């Protein structure tokens, strides 16, 4: 179904624009030009966050934190097999999708663990990536309670996901 | 963000010194190269969506969308300027359709529009960030695709639990921001 959304959306927008007598080609080019500037300005932020995440991983710090936190997660109803995913998810999108594939390979795509992992992926986001990129164009230095709120909501996502997969 | 980044870097470098110091530079360069690759693909994605956005705006469609979502936006983003409502409306719609990367350029523009230059995030800004970090996803297309590829018998049976979980998460995020906003607002007045 979602495969239809984008083409239908584009057709509708273009039809409406030509009905309004707009030069769609010229306007599209003008808008697309902004992409280069945007990417150039968020690039350093992406480098910074990706370097720190990579260092955490190769230094074994991620594994260590996972080991420490898994009893806490277990108490919250999150199985230890997915606790690494819960921890990695806020930092990296590609990394957590790679981990999701590992989980499929290890436990089978239809197992409880895999279903939990899927629902966690679908109900949470890369919090730190969103925070860096979204605030990159502003003068904001103090994010106040933004990151804690997002992280707590992500943890709730993990707890609810594991609970739902048990009954559904 | 400054403190978090510093802590992550210092701890990992200290751990690497003890375990495997040679890997430090390699790891950083690999990650940086990966960031370049990501940015190049993002540039292509943004070009497509920013081009379409320009058409949306010129035709007045984005204004219509903003009007449609106005009741929600007005309540959640109290104090935000009318002019950023359009960007927020497109950002939220793209997120719900699972087009996270398409939502980003509009979100960044909305953030820029809400910046008051004081250096401190305002409540509407935090709301936008948290909404994007806990975004409601109507169709988890990527996970279903990966699951099908891994040989699942019914890859789509995660749709319902995901839908419920994503709604609860989003609501939690909204409530937390509203609550924290109240606590912070009071402290500012009291102090």
Description of the molecule:
- The complex is a heterodimer of chains A (168) and B (191).
- Chain A has one domain (43-167).
- The radius of gyration of chain A is 20 Å and the shape is globular.
- The longest helix of chain A is centred in the N-terminal third of the chain and has 35 residues, at 24-58.
- Chain A has helices at 2-19, 24-58, 61-75, 80-88, 93-107, 112-123, 127-135, 146-167.
- The mean pLDDT of chain A is 88.
- In chain A, α4 (80-88) packs antiparallel against α5, α5 (93-107) packs antiparallel against α6 (112-123) and α6 (112-123) packs antiparallel against α8.
- Chain A contains eight helices and no strands.
- With 168 residues, chain A is mainly α.
- By secondary structure, chain B is an all-alpha fold.
- Chain B has two domains: 26-118, no CATH class; 136-191, no CATH class.
- Chain B has eight helices and no strands.
- In chain B, α4 runs antiparallel to α5 and α5 (100-114) runs antiparallel to α6.
- The two termini of chain B are 25 Å apart.
- Chains A and B meet through α1, α2, α5, α6 and α7 of A and α1, α2, α5, α6 and α7 of B.
Task: Quickly list its features.
heterodimer, A: 168 residues, mainly alpha, 8 helices, globular, B: 191 residues, 2 domains
Overall 3D form of chain B: globular
Q: What integer value in Å does the Rg of chain B equal? A: 20 Å
Strand-residue proportion of chain B: under 5%
Number of domains of chain A: 1
Distance between the termini of chain A: 23 Å
- Overall pLDDT confidence of chain B: 86
Strand tally of chain A: 0
Molecular shape of chain A: globular
Largest interface: A-B, 94 and 101 residues
The DSSP helix count of chain B reads 8
Number of domains of chain B: 2
Structure summary, number of beta strands of chain B: 0
Low-confidence stretches of chain A: none
Helix content of chain A: over 70%
Estimated radius of gyration of chain A: 20 Å
What does the average pLDDT of chain A come to?
A: 88
Specify the helix fraction band of chain B. over 70%
């Amino acid at each position: 179904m979602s495969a239809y959304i984008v083409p239908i959306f584009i057709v509708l927008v273009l039809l409406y624009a030509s009905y309004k007598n707009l030069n769609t080609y010229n306007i599209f080019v003008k808008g697309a030009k902004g992409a280069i500037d945007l990417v150039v300005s968020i690039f350093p932020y992406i480098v910074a966050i990706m370097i720190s995440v990579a260092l955490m991983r190769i230094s074994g710090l991620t594994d260590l934190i996972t080991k420490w936190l898994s009893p806490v997660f277990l108490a919250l109803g999150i199985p230890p097999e997915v606790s690494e995913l819960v921890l990695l998810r806020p930092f990296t999108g590609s990394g957590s999708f790679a981990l999701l594939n590992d989980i499929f390979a290890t436990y089978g795509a239809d197992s409880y663990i895999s279903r939990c992992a899927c629902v966690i992926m679908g109900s949470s986001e890369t919090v730190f990536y969103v925070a860096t990129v979204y605030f990159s164009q502003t003068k904001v230095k103090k994010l106040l309670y933004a990151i804690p709120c997002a992280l707590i909501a992500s943890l709730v996502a993990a707890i609810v996901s594991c609970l739902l997969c048990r009954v559904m | 963000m400054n403190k978090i980044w510093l802590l992550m870097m210092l701890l990992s470098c200290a751990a690497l010194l003890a375990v495997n110091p040679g890997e430090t530079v390699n790891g950083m360069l690999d990650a940086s190269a990966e960031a370049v690759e990501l940015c190049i693909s993002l540039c292509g994605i943004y070009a497509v969506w920013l081009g379409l956005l320009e058409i949306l705006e010129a035709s007045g469609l984005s204004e219509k969308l903003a009007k449609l979502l106005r009741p929600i936006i007005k309540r959640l983003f109290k104090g935000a300027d009318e002019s950023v409502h359009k960007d927020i409306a497109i950002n939220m719609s793209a997120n719900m359709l699972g087009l996270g990367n398409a939502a980003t350029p509009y979100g960044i523009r909305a953030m820029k529009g809400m910046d008051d230059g004081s250096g401190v995030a305002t409540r509407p800004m935090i709301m936008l960030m948290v909404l994007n970090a806990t975004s409601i996803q109507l169709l988890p297309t990527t996970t279903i695709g990966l699951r099908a590829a891994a040989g699942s018998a019914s890859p789509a049976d995660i749709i319902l639990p995901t839908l419920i979980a994503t709604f609860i998460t989003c609501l939690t995020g909204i409530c937390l921001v509203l609550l924290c906003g109240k606590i912070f607002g009071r402290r500012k007045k009291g102090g």
